[in-house]
Amino acid sequence: MTRRGHDRSFDTAFQSKVGLSKWLTPATRDEVERLAEAGKEAIPMVPVAFVTDHVETSYELALEIPEELEEEGAAFPDQYEVIPGLNSHPRFIEALADVAAGQLELPGTQTPAPWSAHPRYKASGRTVRCHQCERIVEATNWAEASKSPRPA
After folding, report:
1. Close Cβ partners of 41 (under 8 Å, ≥ 6 residues apart)
2. 20-66 residue pLDDT tens
3. Domain co-membership, 8 together with 51
4. Sign of dihedral through CA atoms 107, 109, 114, 119?
5. Fewer C-beta neighbours within 10 Å, C or N terminus of the chain?
6. By residue range, what is the domain housing residue 129?
7. CA-CA distance, 75 to 66, in Å (whole number)?
8. Is residue 77 located within the same domain as residue 124?
9. Nearest-CA neighbor of 32 among 87, 73, 69, 71?
10. Are the CB atoms for 150 and 113 separated by under 8 Å?
């Protein structure tokens, strides 16, 4: 947000309280209700605690909060969407690979190949199968990919 110059307003809320101990505030459910009562017609929810979709968070945001507010007759925005996590987005995976490669300490003058030199995963070319059920899985067969020629 700092790099964007705070050109769009945002609010922060917290969820997944467990037990009787004091928790961070405001609660996500209360914040959604407050924003709707304030006249916000659209609320995009961006869960930032995880970089991949987290089943508990997704359930709370997409199902539990809307149902609770509806049952109570509380205000709710016309448009409410839970934005998915970064998951396996190619640019996110590339960034992770760059960070990991940058931390490698290899012997001598050996350096890791740049990310662009590595084989690219294409969902259309999926052939990796689960060894138990023969379903095609969302994975790269790195043993096969490593056999492909790399640029010099």
Report:
1. 77, 78, 79
2. 888 899 999 999 999 999 999 999 988 887 778 888 888 999 999 99
3. yes
4. negative
5. C
6. 119-152
7. 10
8. no
9. 69
10. yes
What CATH number is associated with residue 45?
A: 3.40.50.1400
In this structure, how many other beta carbons lie within 10 angstroms of the beta carbon of residue 107? 5
| Domain-embedded: residue 134 | yes
Residue 141 belongs to some domain of the structure = yes
98 occurs within a structural domain: no
| Sign of the CA dihedral with 24 first, then 29, 32, and 33 last | negative
- Asked whether residue 77 falls in the same domain as residue 125, the answer is no
Whether 32 contacts 65, CB under 8 Å: yes
Rounded to two decimals, the pTM is 0.57
The count of structural domains within the chain is 2
Residue owning tokens 């359930």: 59
Same structural domain for residues 70 and 143? Answer: no
Q: For residue 106, which amino acid is it?
A: L
> Which residue matches tokens 């790099």?
3
Q: Which two tokens stand for residue 81?
A: 């969407």
Q: What is the pLDDT of residues 79-130, one digit of tens each?
A: 898 888 888 788 888 888 888 877 777 777 777 777 677 766 666 666 655 5
C-alpha triplet 97, 101, 105: angle, nearest 5°: 160
